[in-house]
Amino acid sequence: MPEHKIRSLGDFVTRVREIREYWRLPPHKELWFRGEGKKHETLLRPKLYRAPEGRSMKPVSELLEIEDSLYDDFVRCGIQLCEERLEEQDRDWDWYFLLQHHGAPTRLLDWSDGALSALHFALQNKSNRDTADAQVYVLEPYRLKDRIEALPEIEMVKQRWGCYVENHPFVLSPIKRTRKFG
Q1: How many beta carbons lie within 10 A of that of residue 171, not counting itself?
Q2: Domain extents in the chain
Q3: Other residues' Cβ atoms within 10 Å of the Cβ of residue 136
Q4: Are the C-beta atoms of residues 100 and 7 closer than 8 Å to each other?
Q5: pTM for the full predicted model
Q6: At what angle do helices 115-123 and 9-22 cross, to 10 degrees?
C-alpha cells in the first residue's frame, strides 16, 4: 500500500482499518505499530545502529561493547528507577528493557499493538506545523513469522548464530546472564 498523509485522528483510524482490510487480517489477529517522530535515512533501525547525523556508524562489535558497558553501568546505578523488585529469572531482560525505556541506545526496536500509542510516539514533542516527518509503521507479525520460518536456510542461520554467540560473548550479554539464573 502506498504512503498516505494523515490530517486528523479520524483519518488515522480509517487508514488502520483500510490496512487491516487490504491485508485481509482476521479481527482476532493483531497488527503491530511503530511511531517515529521523523523519517530517518535508515528506516526501522534500532537506536544503537543509527549513527549521529553527519557521522558514520561505528563497527558493530564496538557498538555492542558500548551497549554492554551501558547495561552494566545502568544496572549498577539504576536501582532507584525500579518501583518494584525484579524477579530473579527475568531480571536481566527487565534491566535491559528499562535501559532502553530511559533512552539508552540498544538493539531493541519497540513495536506496539496499539495504533494510537504509535501515533503518540510519532507526534510526541511536535507542534501542529511540525508533523510532516512523523511516521507510523504497520507490521503484520504473523505473516513475518511465517515468512521467516519458511526460509530454507533458517536452520543454518540458527546454527551460525549459535557459533557466533559462543565466540562473541558480549553480543547477547543479557541473555547469557539470564541463562545463569534460569
Answers
A1: 19
A2: 1-45+113-139, 47-108+150-182
A3: 20
A4: no
A5: 0.71
A6: 130
